[in-house]
Amino acid sequence: MNRKMATCEGSEARSVLSRVPPLLTDLYQFTMAYAYWRADRHNEPAVFELFFRDNPFGGGFSLFAGLSDCLLFLQNFAFSDDDVEYLRSVLPADTDAAFFSYLKELDCSAVSVSAVPEGSVVFARVPLLEVSGPLAVVQLLETSLLCLVNYASLVCSNAARFRLAAGPRRRLLEMGLRRAQGPDGGLTASRYTYIGGFDLTSNALAGRLFGIPVAGTMAHSYVTSFSSLEEVWPQTLVPCGGAGSVDFICLVKGWLGRVCQILGSKTSLVREGELAAFLSYAIAYPQNFLPVIDSYSVSWFSVPQFESLIIVGTNSISEQSLAELSKKENEIDVVGVGTHLVTCTSQPSLGCVYKLTEVRGRPRMKMSEDPEKSTLPGRKSVYRLLDADGHPQMDLICLSEEAAPEAGVSLTCFPLGLNKTLQTVTPAQVTSLRLDVFTCGQITFPLNSASESRERAQISLQSLHPLHKRLQEPQDYTVVLSERLHSLVSDITKGNSKGSNFLLSN
Amino acid sequence: MNRKMATCEGSEARSVLSRVPPLLTDLYQFTMAYAYWRADRHNEPAVFELFFRDNPFGGGFSLFAGLSDCLLFLQNFAFSDDDVEYLRSVLPADTDAAFFSYLKELDCSAVSVSAVPEGSVVFARVPLLEVSGPLAVVQLLETSLLCLVNYASLVCSNAARFRLAAGPRRRLLEMGLRRAQGPDGGLTASRYTYIGGFDLTSNALAGRLFGIPVAGTMAHSYVTSFSSLEEVWPQTLVPCGGAGSVDFICLVKGWLGRVCQILGSKTSLVREGELAAFLSYAIAYPQNFLPVIDSYSVSWFSVPQFESLIIVGTNSISEQSLAELSKKENEIDVVGVGTHLVTCTSQPSLGCVYKLTEVRGRPRMKMSEDPEKSTLPGRKSVYRLLDADGHPQMDLICLSEEAAPEAGVSLTCFPLGLNKTLQTVTPAQVTSLRLDVFTCGQITFPLNSASESRERAQISLQSLHPLHKRLQEPQDYTVVLSERLHSLVSDITKGNSKGSNFLLSN
């Protein structure tokens, strides 16, 4: 196994992450921006929030990831002249030319963001990112932010589930590059599965850019490329610390006889090409011999001298097969996972949404006949309440102007969901879930390296109660609204049910 | 709907496609390259081929895509000094320093590729790409080529299935950016779903880079951002070609009464904020009015004046729901598809493999206890045999030194699969499936634009017999081996079964 920890992420990693161009968004963001501009509403202060509606994979939690990418995207947000000329060519011919001048000047200098730190355990319906700024600008950011958070959080959460299924001892190797959505899908997968709890990646570029330890085995093609022992070179070797060269081929033939005797096999059954391949590999890697033996006809063996070998298992590993593997006694040290990890087979998308919650200081709410699709109005704060054992007990969403809850002080709140009634809780500890990460165009929170986010994920997962971490049928985590937020929702909904417009509460 | 065709792909598109760095590969490619180099085998001429084992989505065919990306990757293949220093830091400390000097000089000037043109209909087990060159170099290319072909071909084939489900009339809009595997997963999805038969994308950058027509509707946030008719601006408009301004709000209120009368509804039930949003949008887009009405409480209506409206349907559309939709009479003109299209929910990976078939002019074969996992030895040619109606009838794989089959001349062959017996066929037409696309480091085939590859896909799909195109339970397409190739497989397999090494037939 060839691996070594690179120490930090360099400027090149930054430039890879930050190269998301602002044109990488849905066209309708521009058509809406123009409509706001046309109505002279583009500079109205507005607030959007980003959240997902269900924990992925039928699980009880998710990990939040993609924040560093979002911050770099915001910091570099600006349209080139070519971008603007392209937009001029696709928007209707009667679009006011002054709008394009406006686009050329646009940046995120009036935008601020509060967010959950990358790697945190998060739950459905809790706003993870709050983006405030001029209405047209924060509208334009929607698709890019969703794109950066959705897959990163999904694959990171998937990795965390594989880690839980594997248990803490076994090392996990991500090897999904060839099955990812193109080159950068693969790079994203390597970064965020590492944050989610994998130990190693096969992706050399991810190793270089993000400091992820890299590892690899051997391909079948290497084995099939050999046909005879004559291809082994050199045929003689000088022993380590010894004097005089030794005929390596003769030595191997001698050992082969002894091994075959132990295994009760015949040396005539050994394929010379395979033997030549393994010998050549051993010559190249005297300290790091790791041959591939899967798919070949091999008898499983138990030879005392082999106990120090590292065994890597790979074979279309899924979360379920990994969990099965972990239940049994076996000698596998490292498990390599590709397709099921990076494509998130059992749920290939997270479904984050980005919803308007406030314009000009007035709360906005999208109502829907499906209550799950309604949004929570107003600018908010989010707190995590911990129990006496330090486990997260519930997340509290309240209006930003409300006072923070206090440890040891009881509070009344409404669980999210239909027909839930008022309940009282006394938290042992209270933490604010989101931090100010971007203020008026400047990144105000350290850009975490992959290993820093990975450490946060481990700590965050450790504190989570085992019932919420269960891979199957986890206990639902409670998310509650403050009484004031709950009242605001009721007021707006009632206002709406009388056929009036969305009610404005203040 | 705002769309316009950009005319060609510029140099910037090329640079996006070609930026796949050669370090974006699995580490084991380097460890194997070193082992070849250590055994002085790195310059032995070798041939690999790329294929997939099963058509995706339970279908009868696939579309081949990703070729332009592969060619640009090969043309630019070279390691930077920083790449090599990184590799030095992760390979074992006793790796010979001369190997790193060798890597610094490496390029694809001795590599040649023959390939199926992008957009062609292809089938399982047929080698799509043949890569020949120095053993260590063509080994190093494996992961990158697989990464570039796998998702491109998968999502392109998925798009073709959506197109078949939709029928030819309805226009299809790809809108999956926010659900793709990060920014470039989204860009890849937009390009290859267009090639597979979509008409439009919501992704503005894909529009600019690849000349794909772009389209968009309106987000809910635009609607919820309005609360009263006072926000509509301007409130008066000058009629097209008319003189004197008109009070637009009064005019709308008048029309609203008449529409409500037709619908048997009350004007008091209309939400003023929604009305304000639609009016503002209409002011911004007098010729391109396309409001979002899904998720809102709307009565379906039939008003004569509305017949000229373009109706776009979007709601987590899958291949199945699209097929259902197409069976019914309805007025939907454009269908927008996101998640299920770009994530390929029903099969999120294609599983292409890259296998060694020849070294130093001698055929190589990987044998496996699972016959499906065995490979076909030797350097090959692939022909498509057409029947008298011009439909592809079967694909013939033979050794490259064999003469091409001729139209009207009968030939004997063996269908792939277990226990298949010799059969005779007389093709009405014969075409060579692969072309020389890269010769000794130079691209020797035009780099097709997205629209050129899309046109090939349409022509290729049109000629395919409907039985092979059926989305459910398609008829199996026949892939056959020439007698000589079949003999070679038998000889090697028998040689193997006697316990000897892989037999070399010539």
TrEMBL record, chains A, B:
The protein's annotated pathway: Cofactor biosynthesis; NAD(+) biosynthesis; nicotinate D-ribonucleotide from nicotinate: step 1/1
The protein's enzyme class: ligase
GO cellular component: cytosol
Gene Ontology annotations of biological process type: NAD+ biosynthetic process via the salvage pathway
Domain Nicotinate phosphoribosyltransferase N-terminal, chain residue ranges per copy: 23-150
Reactions listed under catalytic activity: 5-phospho-alpha-D-ribose 1-diphosphate + nicotinate + ATP + H2O = nicotinate beta-D-ribonucleotide + ADP + phosphate + diphosphate
Entry GO MF terms: nicotinate phosphoribosyltransferase activity; transferase activity
Record note on modification: Transiently phosphorylated on a His residue during the reaction cycle. Phosphorylation strongly increases the affinity for substrates and increases the rate of nicotinate D-ribonucleotide production. Dephosphorylation regenerates the low-affinity form of the enzyme, leading to product release.
UniProt-listed Gene3D superfamilies: Aldolase class I (3.20.20.70), nicotinate phosphoribosyltransferase (3.20.140.10)
UniProt family annotation: Belongs to the NAPRTase family.
Name of the protein this chain belongs to: Nicotinate phosphoribosyltransferase
Naturally occurring in which organism (per UniProt): Cyprinus carpio carpio
Species lineage: Eukaryota, Metazoa, Chordata, Craniata, Vertebrata
